[in-house]
Every structure is written in C-alpha cells, then in structure tokens.
Amino acid sequence: DPDSGDNGRLLYSLVSGQTNKFDINENTGQIFTVSVAGEAGTFNLEIQAADQGTRKLTARTTVNVTVDSSSSSNIVMLVLNQKINVVERNSAEIQRVLEEKLGWNVYVVNIYSKESEGKARSSTEETQVNIIAFDEAYQEVPAENVKRKLREQKGDIELELEKVFSSSVSAAIWEAPAASASPELVAAIVLGVLLAGTFLAFLAFVHLDRKRRRKYEKQDLVKKVEIVESIDNPWAVDKNGSLKSLEKPEHMNN
C-alpha cells in the first residue's frame, strides 16, 4: 500500500481455511504451521490484508500451502518461571528481546501452561513459550541452531526479560524426555538375559563334566599302568613299603 501513516499500514489475518492448523503474523504476513505434525497434503487459506485508515480498505487472496510427509518442526520451547497471564500480556516484549539477542526474526507460535483451568492461570509459576526463528531470507532456522544461540545468550536474555517482568527470570530450553522402553522390549531384554545366563551355566557344566571325566580317565590309566608294571616286575612294594615276591609260594607249587 503506497499510502503513508495508518492508511499505508497493513495488517494481515486468516479469513477462512484450516485456521486451526496455521497462523499468520499480522504485521509481516508470514504464515506459520501450528499443528500439522504427521499430516501431509495441500491446505487452502484465504488471507486478508487491511489498511488502518479511517475507511479501511481490504484485499483478499488464496494461499495454497503444501505440506509433505518429510516436513520437520523447528519449533523450540522456552520455559519461563512466570505466570501465564503475565507472559501473555508481555508476549510482544518477549519477542522483541529474543529477536535482539538471537539476531533472527522470531515468531511466538504458542504460549502454554500445564494448568488449563482459569483459576490456575494466575498461580502456576511456569509457562512454556513456543517460538520459531527465521533468517534474513525468511527460511526457518534449524531448531538445534536456535537452541545453541539461546544457550549462548541465556544470561543476556534473562537480564532483559527481568526488565520486562520487573522480577527475576529463569529461561530454560525444554527438551523432550527420552522415550522409555516399552513393556515388550523390557520383557525381551529380560528373556534374553535369562537365556544368556542359562547358556553360560550349560557351558560351565559341560566344561566341568569334561574336566571330571578326564580326571577319572587319567586315574584309571594310572591304575592300569601300575597293574601292568606289577605283573612284569617280579618284585613289588606292599602296603608297608617292603618288597614282596609276586612268584607263587613253594607250598602252592606242590
């Protein structure tokens, strides 16, 4: 809009279409996905631009957004130790601080608290702010790059947010917990350990059994050798250690 002042200031909005799955930055007209994870296809959105003059002029157009199955989310969740109603009231300032410290265009996708009841909205001291960053070419900044920059600028961000909230602020990056093992996987692991233990015990038994057999075979061989040597030797040692003749006594020859 070539006009000046309010007559040239445009605000954008979603008029119809999948408005629950998309959102739009009213100042820049940038369209963002909100809840299309796991979905694929083409979505038709009707967008309106309106100037802010006394007699508002509007124009509409249809935008077709195609989401493929390989789309990944670069939304980063920032957790603030502030009440949700206070965070919602200062969302624009939060966005400003993040853009200044990160050096990217930042869009606040959603502000969320674990407590959904109205009475808890002013008592829960933890609010989750979902953000997504765009570079100068309006390309999404990978989530890992955003997280890295947030960690680097954590101190400065918290100092600036303290000015916004007039209180001490803690800004932490929320990380998804590691997926716990399923009961089937746990059962498979336990069964595998039991089978492995049983197999090792079987191997130990076989080894000991072979060792015992070799010992008995060796003892039998020694006895057989002693008997053969005794037969070949006319003299042998008795139990008392004295030599005795293995020849038959004379009275037995008679």
Automatic annotation (TrEMBL):
UniProt xrefs under SMART domains = CA (SM00112)
Could you give a GO molecular-function term held by this entry? cadherin binding
Superkingdom, according to UniProt?
Answer: Eukaryota
Q: Name one GO biological process term.
A: cell migration
Q: Could you tell me which Pfam families the record lists for this protein?
A: Cadherin
List keywords of the entry alphabetically.
Answer: Calcium, Membrane, Repeat, Transmembrane, Transmembrane helix
* Cellular component per GO, a single term: catenin complex
InterPro entries, per the entry: Cadherin, Cadherin-like_dom, Cadherin-like_sf
Which CDD domains did the record assign? Cadherin_repeat
The primary location reported for this protein is membrane
As for subcellular location, the record says: Membrane
The name of this protein is: FAT4 protein
**Biological classification of the source:** Eukaryota, Metazoa, Chordata, Craniata, Vertebrata
